[in-house]
Write a structure and sequence with these properties.
Distance between the termini: 65 Å
Radius of gyration: 20 Å
Strand content: 5-15%
Number of helices: 11
Bound molecules: nicotinamide-adenine-dinucleotide
Largest sheet: 8 strands, mixed
Number of strands: 10
Structural class: alpha/beta
Order of helices and strands: EHEHHEEHEHEEHEHHHHHEE
């Protein structure tokens, strides 16, 4: 037997499970890259919203002259939306982008795996759940991998690729090739809590909230300081509002529990905002009040 890694299977068709914020973007970039896409959600209404969002995004690109009308129509035509998991049976890869709940994801895999061809790859877009543990719930841990896209998917260049402990080299190579076809750059992470980007980003956001809580600075001085002092397009508090403060808190809890180090303990002020329902942009109020234009700091 040769030790040469098995050739990566070429991915010619994609399934996406979950037509929310992330699934829509993933379906759009795959279709725009010429791949046929089956998009599945349990809610028919989510699928209608998803197709309208894809059209709106591509219309905007037609308006800017970056996509032709014919290419827009062809991309939309490549996406087959539906509520039946059975439609995913012929896909070379299925990218799961359903709600961030472990039991829900493993229930989806339990339904999906018997339908998939044995050689098909299963990828998860999870932000914080262990890829190794999710893989272990399937019949194909070697063909299971994390493909962590960033929001908004058509704009953000990065795909963080997460190798579970059993992920094979050929699965890794196949998703690297897929990401390149989508025009994305990859960063490969081993499967530890938070992977690379959230492991480094969330402690920075958390520290910004501690600085706010302790009165080191107000919202504006913390964000201006970090934006202009470290050359970031958004300050950490503005970015936290964009991500969602509930999402930030839940990722910090994963880091704290998974790594067992008190340096990841979530700031009590962050927990208090979440308890108040002040979740950031999506609820209209977080570290900024989005009811005013421009948004005004709340501290
Ligand atoms: P979302 O709530 O916008 O969408 C989730 C979708 O999954 C919903 O449309 C829901 O109907 C659908 N769904 C739920 N159960 C399902 C099932 N059994 N079968 C099929 N569809 C089902 O969530 P989102 O923000 O798009 O996040 C999806 C995944 O992407 C999560 O794992 C999240 O951690 C990850 N993620 C999110 C972001 C982000 O910024 N929002 C960034 C990176 C990764």
């Amino acid at each position: 037997m040769s030790d040469a890694p098995a050739a990566a299977p070429e991915i010619r068709s994609v399934g996406v499970i979950g037509a929310g914020q992330m699934g829509v973007g993933i379906a759009q970039v795959c279709a725009a890259a010429g791949l046929p896409v089956v998009l599945v959600d349990v809610q028919a209404a989510a699928l209608d919203k998803a197709m309208a969002a894809v059209r709106r995004n591509l219309d905007r690109q037609v308006g800017k002259g970056t996509v032709s009308e014919a290419d827009r129509d062809a991309a939309i035509g490549r996406i087959a939306p539906g509520t039946e998991m059975g439609a995913l049976g012929d896909c070379d890869i299925v990218i799961e982008a359903a709600t961030e709940k472990e039991a829900l994801k493993t229930a989806i895999y339990g339904q999906l795996c018997p339908i998939l061809r044995p050689e098909a790859i299963l990828a998860t877009n999870t932000s914080s759940i262990s890829v190794t543990r999710l893989a272990a719930s399937t019949d194909r841990p070697d063909r299971f991998i994390g493909m962590h896209f960033f929001n908004p998917v058509p704009v953000m260049k990065l795909v963080e690729v997460i190798r579970g402990i059993a992920t094979s080299d050929s699965t890794h190579a196949a998703v690297e090739a897929l990401a390149a076809r989508l025009g994305k750059t990859t960063a490969t992470a081993e499967d530890f809590p938070g992977f690379i980007v959230n492991r480094i980003l969330l402690p920075m956001i958390n520290e910004a909230v501690f600085a706010l809580q302790e009165g080191v600075g107000d919202v504006r001085s913390i964000d201006t300081g970090m934006k202009l002092g470290t050359n970031q397009p958004m300050g950490p508090l503005e970015l936290a509002d964009f991500i969602g403060l509930d999402t930030c808190l839940s990722i910090l809890r994963v880091l704290h529990e998974g790594l067992g180090d008190s340096k990841y303990r979530p700031c009590p002020l962050l927990a208090k905002y979440v308890e108040a329902g002040w979740l950031g942009r999506k609820s209209g109020r977080g570290f900024y009040d989005y009811g005013q234009e421009p948004p005004q700091p709340t501290r």
